[in-house]
Amino acid sequence: MPSASLPMMKPAREPETGRSAAKSKSQLQDDSIMGTNNSSIVSKRSVERLYFPDEAHFFRYFVKKPQRRSPLINRGYWVRMKAIDQVVRQFLEQDSPKQKVVVNLGCGYDPLPWQCLERYPAASNGTKFIDIDYRDLMLKKRTVVQSTNELNSMLTGAKVSENDVLFTSDQYIQLGCDLRDLQALGRVLASVIDIENCTILFTAEVSITYMNVEASDALIHWASRLTEARFCVLEQLIPDGEDHPFSRTMMAHFGKLRTVLGAVQKYPTEKAQFSRFTGLGWPKVQVCNLWKLWNSPTFATPEERTALDQVEPFDEWEEFALFGCHYFLLVADSANMATRAVASSISESQRSNNLEKSTDSTLPARSGLQPELIFSEYPKNHGYKRFAASMPVKGPDHSRDMIGVFAGMGLNTRTDSMDKYSVDEIDFQVLNPRGPAVTPSSRMCHTITDMGDTSLLVGGRTSPDNASRECWLYHKWLSTWERLDDLPWPLYRHQATRLNSEYVLVSTGRIDSRTVSTDFLVWNRRKGWVRCSSENPPRPSYGAVFFSNKIADVGDNSSSRRGFLAGGMSTSSSFLDDVWQWKLNEFNTQAPTIHFTRLPSFEDKHLVARFGANVVCIQDKFYIIGGVIKDRIIKLAEEVCVLSINSTSISVESIPLGFTPRPLLIGSTTVAFDQSLVITGGSAVCFSFGTFWNKGSYTVLLPSLEKAKSQEEMRPSEVLRLIQTVAAETPCKTTESRISTESVTLNSVPRVQIGSALEFSRMLESSTPVIIEKADIGPCTAKWTTDYLKEKIGTEREVIVHEASTEHMNFKSKNFSYVTKWFGDFLDQIQQGQMLYLRSLSAEKPSEKAADISRDFPSIAADFVLPPELAVVTENTHSSPLRISGPVNMWLHYDVMANVYCQIKGSKRLLLFPPTDVKHLGFEPGSSSSQLNVFQELHSPRLAGTHPQEALLQPGDVLFLPSLWLHAASPTSGVSIAVNVFFRSLSAGYAAGKDVYGNRDLQAYEKGRIDIAKIVKSFENLPKDVRGFYLQRLLEELRDNI
């Protein structure tokens, strides 16, 4: 982001020597602030490349290495850039007899002058653009301008000097000066423009906030005394206290960077900023947070919003709303400046009045309920999910109910596991299912609706453009899943509500990132999916609050239900705050009809009209939890509200809860358990500041609605806590119609000795595993005892290891944790039999660089060498991780790069399968790991049709593993030590970009998966039998080419 103009550094022409050359604390902070500019312009360059393909690009000249940012960051910066552009454009286009001047305070490398000259040439004619920032930064910017023809050719009369005025031209000026020295600032400005005869726009996009707040206040006050001026600020807010998880993450981020935000702590809200500017001499002030600005019809048209979705898929609305609520745009005018409402249809007076109401409004009526809230912390690395779905499930003996939370986004990837919560006070455990299981695949943004003895799972997605049609029924007494008929179209971000024990109503939702469904659907086991005819329907939406306010008892044969629909997001990506009542007639027929009635005078609709909220019914009361609302942040006291409905009235009340620690109720799930609300999961990416995860579950113990329970009855034993994670096991995929029951034949990997590089080259060409005996891999086989390694590497060297809960590690269910240990403690613990495993990472940048034993462990690297016969490995090495393991098995997986596995101490058993066996071993599309335990299943029918080979490695053995051979490993001694050298055996075709572990699939495969998705999508509007016919033909054609 543009940096602030704080005290300038001493000019380069006055070099410092000795102790005086050491940077002061202030100078170090200045460097940190300038560093924020580097991150900001890379993000803006990402937006420029993606969203403005038809415009001239100017950030490109200041960003040497472009990076594609995430959709959330791209859209956030798009709003920031458009907000500033809109203010500047309106300033340029307004009539004025005076010369217009645009002064960018803390400009960084922002190319605003060139963008204006290119976009608005007529309006920019005669305007002076002035950039002000640190002298050192401005000198670098000047060099870029001078050396770039595309920039300097747009300027005339260019001159360079070495005083505070570094660069001048007829259109553009560069100043390097101290914004705290207002006398000097005024003098320098007066030297390049006639201030009294100019109308001046000052812009400060996340810049002066880094200044000392007294200094930035003085600057604002100084500017207010100019004859004709406008001041535009875009900065951060803290709209609901520093304990709000987004605010806390944001402030911690800037604190870590040593770029503390000065203004936001003194002026945390829109109202405070409004008062700040009016108090500092600006009589006309407009202020608006960016989430409210996004929803303004004059900021972006529906066509503009829709066009954004065509550029890249986007489904981070809750996180985008949080970002927008934490930034504001303020425009202040001096008394002589002609004022226009900026980026809003609301006039200045209405804006200030609304500001009073929206920022410090009195809270809605509070419920008389006095619930007790208890927090239960998660076991390490477990329970962390967002956009999952929950349901009641049965305990192991069926005597006590539990809560199951299925799928969702985990810490690193989508999961297909189920977390189980219970009041039982037992130790947490990770369980694998017994035997084959048929389960839904990993997904998020799906729904699960409780129907009594069963629960209905509908839809969900992997990515915003890869939604699922699947529907599953969970049988609670059997703890099994059953696949049902698919939806008529893929669906996610929908809602589902139970009508009775046999029928479910499903709302509209997203089909993909550009399409919203328009029909409501009724599901029944016998009838399948039936579309509803709609009367007076609202605009199609997704993510809304949707529920039926009467759930029939078993035996209720009435065919009508009533309910509510509120909030949600429209097809043009604007927030909807309408509240609707609906009535569904004849839902148990083939022609159900749903009629909608809008409730225009619904009070406190902001509590009900939400996006991404949970709705739970307990004793005819409807509890609405979390999500986001239109225009502003949900305050802590409003996070949970209760809706009461009777024949004559509808009322909504907030339930203030003293959450400790304060959660972020985004992507969380809520389910009723007796008289309690159980809130699990929840997380959000806090823009570019980091990710916040709720670190436990919350049980909200509600008093009985007939009479309040005594405090003694609300025992801690009623609190639900996470006790199990059950991994879902996907059945092995096969194209065979009949699976053989014959046992597999286990062959041994051949053992050879080689004497030349030519012999190894022939091994490479054969592409089959071989154990090379008696290879000279250096003195490591004799030296590398645990005591020797402690001495050479150091007992207090920190290493990241896998800490397993069972002897078989499962990458999909994550039945292990990544923990940091001292190297000495790690070696002691594996000698004691603890289930730990080290696969070394790069010591410098583990997320960017591959492991290299010579660089990561230089004190022992000389002990290990590859023999000259393996020169091709040495010459094409990708990585060389050190592996040290206790009694724990490595999961079945494949590596895209070939490798040699050098056993140094201890012994190990590996099971290997040729690449052609992949279809039998449970590898999901796009995954290089399987959760099948091949050591356990080796002689079971599940491995029928496979061709396993066994490698038993002793110290000094070198196993050649060709590319794509599937393998799992198990130590056969107490401690196993090995070095694994990965190398490139293909001349081309590897995945583009970083591949730290050497297992990213080939570029052609990734492209092929995209092509398959496109092919399948092209058939989606055809009848199911026609679609199946042609896809089967294409499948056979593909097989013919294998």
From TrEMBL:
PROSITE patterns (alphabetical): JMJC
Reactions catalysed: 7-[(3S)-(3-amino-3-methoxycarbonyl)propyl]wyosine(37) in tRNA(Phe) + S-adenosyl-L-methionine + CO2 = wybutosine(37) in tRNA(Phe) + S-adenosyl-L-homocysteine + 2 H(+); 7-[(3S)-3-amino-3-carboxypropyl]wyosine(37) in tRNA(Phe) + S-adenosyl-L-methionine = 7-[(3S)-(3-amino-3-methoxycarbonyl)propyl]wyosine(37) in tRNA(Phe) + S-adenosyl-L-homocysteine
Keywords, in A-Z order: Methyltransferase, S-adenosyl-L-methionine, Transferase, tRNA processing
Gene Ontology biological process terms in this record: tRNA methylation; wybutosine biosynthetic process
Listed InterPro entries: Cupin_8 (IPR041667), JmjC_dom (IPR003347), Kelch-typ_b-propeller (IPR015915), Ppm1/Ppm2/Tcmp (IPR007213), SAM-dependent_MTases_sf (IPR029063)
Enzyme Commission (EC) number: 2.1.1.290, 2.3.1.231
Pathway of action: tRNA modification; wybutosine-tRNA(Phe) biosynthesis
Coiled-coil regions listed: none
Broad enzyme group: transferase
Biased composition (Polar residues): 23-37, 345-364
Family, as annotated: Belongs to the methyltransferase superfamily. LCMT family.
PANTHER family the UniProt entry points to: TRNA WYBUTOSINE-SYNTHESIZING PROTEIN 4
Stated name of the protein: tRNA wybutosine-synthesizing protein 4
Phylogenetic placement of the source organism: Eukaryota, Fungi, Dikarya, Ascomycota, Pezizomycotina
